[in-house]
Every structure is written in structure tokens, then in C-alpha cells.
Amino acid sequence: MNPTVRLVALVLRFAPVPLLVGLAGCREEKAAKPLASLSPSPLPRVNVASGEGEEANFRVAPAEVYGEPVPEEALRVELAGEFVRLGEEVLEPRRVEHRARLREHVKEQRVLLVPDEDTFLVQVSELFATLRDFADEVWLLHPDAPVAYPLVLRDEQGFQAWLAEVAPGKLRIIQRQDGFELTTSVGKLPGPDANGPSIPVRGGRQDIATLREGLGKLKGRFTTSEDICLVPSFGMELAQAARALGGVFVAPEEPLFETLCFVYPTPRQSTATQTEEGLPLKPSTQR
């Protein structure tokens, strides 16, 4: 046997156990990845300026109005503040007896909401709660074009339950008077002002073209997300919210997300009022 090999064999045979353990532990270990590498990559940024000069900050790029075809054979519900018109009948959903009549009209029906320019979200909470619980489908008509949007209605409690679901993305459009804030489960899509909306209002007008661009960036990041929620300010006109929904579409009948969730204010009615109406006392369930 080679003398060197014999010497190594003798050392291994008679060496103490701690020495052998130390020799075995002399393997080279890879350095751990820095903690910063484990955090999600930053969200893309939206660019809202177009052209040069200060006036570019007030210029809104033109945007085609896209959506779904207006559904046929739908029950038209025309809104006028706190009142709704169904054919020749005018109802006030805040009144108990009128809500009962409204339920009879919309139960298991496809409903098309027709907004005017002066109806605010705070005025339609009882109407939307009734539609959520009794209508088969709810569509919102665009105020400026013959297109409409199918909606999943959620009140504030239902929206919080949706946010609590374990799923990637949880994309939502927060619509305020100063613009759109595009928010995800990992943060806000940044815009020109870190403390302002992702897409500000420009010249007093909604920037639908940039909204569409920003939503496209989010879809590219969260490829498996199939739903998005529009959360308008409750002091905003419903017609303005309907215009914002056009930003979810990139072409006629081609939405970036399959499901459009619309968040409305929880009605002021109490459980006592529900009992008076004969309604079951149940949590806010969502289809």
C-alpha cells in the first residue's frame, strides 16, 4: 500500500470523534441571499405627461369608449337621485314599501342601470343592496356610448371580505375626485406624485387612456388575477364611475379582467328595518 494512503487510513482510524466531525463540517457553504431579494419586485410606473410645456399637464389623450354590448331584454332602471323609474312607475328605494315593490320588479331579472349626471353613490345604497340580493344580473350603462358593464355588487363589508381572501393581486381602482389610485396586495402603482393618485385628473377630466395603460401594466404583473374592484368615492356621481369602467377594456368586448366588482356604500337600514320588511337577517353574501 502506498505510504501516504496508509498514513491517512491510520489517522482516520484512531482520530478522536470531534476531529472527524470538524473535518466533515469543512464543506464550503453558499452565502444566504440578502433579505431585500425576497421582497416583491417594484410595481411598474405610469407616465401621465404627454407632450412638452406646462399645458401638457392638463391635456388628456383621447380614449375610445369600450365595453360590452347593451344587453337585450333587460329591465331598464332609470336613476334620478333618490328615485328610480321602471317603465311608468317611480319608486324611492329608501322607503320600506317601495323596496318591497322594487324587489318584485327585479327578482331574478337582468337589470340595466341607466344613470343620470346628478345621482350620487350615497343615494343608491338601498337600490344596490336590493339588486345584489334579488336581481339575476346587474349591468351599468355608460352615459356617453351604447355600451354597458356587468357588475358584481359588494357593499363595504363584502369588499373587506374579498380583500381578506388569500389570492394574488387583489387589484382595485380607488376613484377619487383628484384621480385614480391603482392599488394591489403589494402596494400602489406609482404615478408622478408619490403622495398623490397614480393617475391624476387632468384639466378637470378623467384620464381614461392612462388608466387603461396602468391597468395593462398590472395585468402583466398579476397574470392570474381575473377580477378587479372599482371603489369610487361615495360622494361621486354614478355616471363618473361608469365612465371609469371603460378603462378596464382595451377593445370592444375585451376586458383586461373577467369580473368587474363595484363597491357601494352600506345602506343605513338597521336589522330592525330588515325585520319590518320581512327580509332574512343574513350576512352580506356576494355572487
Description of the structure:
The chain is of the alpha/beta class and 287 residues long. The protein has one domain (62-277). Helices cover 28% and strands 22% of the residues. It has helices spanning 3-14, 17-24, 96-106, 125-134, 156-164, 208-221, 238-245, 271-277; strands spanning 68-69, 75-80, 83-86, 89-91, 110-114, 137-141, 147-150, 152-154, 171-176, 179-184, 187-188, 199-200, 227-232, 249-251, 254-255, 259-263. The strands form three sheets. A seven-stranded mixed β-sheet has the order 1-7-6-5-2-3-4, covered by helices on one side. It is globular and about 105 Å long. The N and C termini lie far apart (81 Å). The model is unreliable at 35-39, 270-276 and 280-287 (pLDDT under 50).
